[in-house]
Batch of 3 targets.
Target 1
Amino acid sequence: HQLCTTLNSQYQYIKMKLSLISFLAATGYATAASSNPFAPKVSANTAASAYTAKLVRGAKVMRSLEGGDDREIDLTNYSIKFEKCQFVKEFAGEEDGGEDGQFLQTKRFIIFRLCPNNSCGSCNYDFGEYLVDLETYLQATTEFVEEKQEAMCETCNDCYEQAYNNDGGDDNNGDNQNDCSSIDVSTCYEECQNIENMEDNGYLDASEFIECQALENNNNNNNGVAYYAGAMCASSGSRIKIGVFTDEDCSILAENMDVESMLYGDNGAMKLSYHKIKSVFPESDCVASCLQEEEQDENNDGNNDQAAETAEICQTLYEAAGKCESIHGFSAMKYYNNNNGQGNYYNQVRNEEAVCNYMSNVMSGIYDPSGEISISGGRSITGGGAATTGGQKFALTFFILGSVGLAGYAAMLHQQLTKGAKSTLAQQGGAMA
């Protein structure tokens, strides 16, 4: 009888432990994923992330409408510095196509800074940090580069003609002669001729593919599959190139496919020239100065004292970008507020913390080239869900094996209790007989 009591107590204890371990096994995954104190702080691909991105896109300058005030912020003492290119996959709301079953959408972002002039190599204080979509950035910067190249080639051609005709002594061309003194005519003329005769030499301008567009493969090697070309991030976000995609939004990259293998012209296969695009992501130099270059003195009277103006490229990017300025001591914004009233920036300041945090996540390297969140060191978040780490898998395996072992032990105890009870009843029956 004492043996039966002991075994029964052990059996009840094992049943209690088994129930507890089963509960822990069932909830272990969620608990492990949420209570790890060493897990990096990240933003998942959720509606909250999409909301923050919406704030980023809407964090623009709010001008005062009182008295017709429409003054621009003065950026003439700053220059544009490229920081990073990044794809980001985020939750798609109904207004972005979520109602069509596309729960994730790919956004293409550029992070750039406005650095004090001649400080793009350091740029560690008195700067603003900004986030804008890739297409807007490329359109504004390549247009600037194109205008700069056209002006350079126009001057170069004039200088080349002067040198060829030996017309340097003409007093009417004195200004042009001064411009030519700092120009290497042979080098610039060759460069300009290459640009002008690009297609004849078998090249296409890569900037023509900034917007996603269908590839017309004249070699008919697509087997009926439609491919698209568009701008993409490369070299961990430090460069921009043209890639091949399988969808019209250029969000699904066609792996191991080279866009140049699909470009054909009247004279056969074509290659891409990056003479414009490569100028918009220099490693340490500035992309462009925000000080508008002075127009040539048309009257030649030496009186060309015009007020400094912000260059169009900086105005365009600044107005389109999400802004993170206060924490970097951006003095242009402080000066603007002091002279135009704090209300002009109420929307930006209200959302600046969210914008700065969003940009910090983009800069931190938690996104892979396709835009998925991927963190080295064991923890990853892909497509809005969490993947188990090695420690979590070990804990789950331990719980499962422990449950199986305890279940077997409980069955053995139950069998012993049953046999013991039958033996006791048999003995009691014999004694009564």
Target 2
Amino acid sequence: AVLGGPEPKPVKEFLNIRTAITQLAFNPSSEMLAFSSKYVKQSMRVAHVARRRVFANWPTSKTPLNYVQCAAFSPHSGYLAFGNDKGHAMLYRVNHYAGA
């Protein structure tokens, strides 16, 4: 079986958002996972998959997320973009991939 049996258990549950997750995006190398909810303002997090930890330093309380509708990483992971309910597309540099 692909997932290890008829009732596989998750490797990790990220409980940082307490409402329905409406958006998931892995970066191309699957090192990072962005997840968000369009139902709650400021509800977006980015996790490091191998470490199974959510980045605590982003987004900050000053990041203008509003209600995130979509998110995507650039092909070489140098950027993370997301769109919100205000019609804004935000582009952020991912410092770990500064050469990308």
Target 3
Amino acid sequence: MRCSVYFPAVIAGLVGIDDVLAGNWTQLSAGPWSGREGLMVASTQGKLVLTGGGTSSGAGFLDEGWTSTDGGGWALAAKA
């Protein structure tokens, strides 16, 4: 199961927190990454950065990151 991208829209300022709290969600993309839980999202330098998380089966930690400028299109980040 892939994660849908709802949460970064607030971080990117694409929707207001009041809309989210009222239950007004808009799906921006299905996300190209594999299903996961416990991931982190941050906004920095005009980009959203999604990192890590574990597999939905609890089998291990994922050491990849994804970036987006709009919450809709995502690119796999280069490993450091």
